[in-house]
Amino acid sequence: MKPLFRKGTSAASRVMSFAVVALVLILLSVFTDLLAPVRARLGNVSAPLYWLVDLPRTVLEWGQEGIRSRSSLVEENASMRAQLLIHERKLQQMAVLAAENVRLRELLNSTAMVTDRVLVAELIGVSPDPLVHRVIINKGASDGVYVGQPLLDAAGLMGQVVEVSRYSSQVLLITDSTHALPVQVNRNGVRTVVEGIGDFHRLNIRHLSNTVDIRVGDLLVSSGLGQLFPVGYPVAEVIEVERDPGEPFARVTARPQAQLNRSRHVLLVFSGEIPVEDSAGGN
Prior knowledge:
This protein is of the alpha+beta class. About 35% of the residues lie in helices and about 25% in strands. It contains 2 helices and 12 strands. The chain has helices at about 10-30, 35-115; strands spanning about 115-125, 135, 150, 155-165, 170-175, 180-185, 190-195, 205-210, 220, 235-240, 250-255, 265-270. The strands form 2 sheets. It has a 6-stranded antiparallel beta barrel with strand order 1-2-5-4-3-12.
């Protein structure tokens, strides 16, 4: 095969020849389909080369996108966690407010059944001694609170005021072991006395004859005897009656109606004349 250019051919001639050949190929490619099969084969051969050449750029972009995506996901997750905590806190506050709203509605409904003048108060403290059932309320002498004043919640009697300062007062609950309360059976009017035993959920009735008509489920209400509490307020429900033929007295246990360890908003009852200081005791 003869070489395309002879040894004596100049560089300018070679360039010119290449230019002419290139021009002819361009014209054939533009105006005819003679080079279509060649272009197709060259495209198939060059495609992997293009992919290899473009691979570093693709890998770089993929890495940058992955880093950006992970960073954005981390930021988004952190933001969503913060928002979730905020919404959970708001939800907890709403639950507390809803429960408090229910309790306030019950308390307001109970005031409609109270014929005496009342004052709404709030518990602000409890006794640190588990054997002493006392609470502190946010009303005092400046609000007209007096020693011996009855305290009740939406369900029943809770106790009576035993100490008064200018802006707060201490209340002895009916479940305190030093407290006794005259009551009567709402069903038949039988009078007796319930005593605290240091248990928020139980009261005892002592010295009640075996023959007295008292049953499980009977409602005990304040009798008004001793002028410590107004008449007719719910105190407790009888939950157990034990009669032993060999014993002179029945053993009777009652459950307080008031939510003594739950109620936060309470009512101070102003009934009749304000008692003197000597009526402050719970016995």
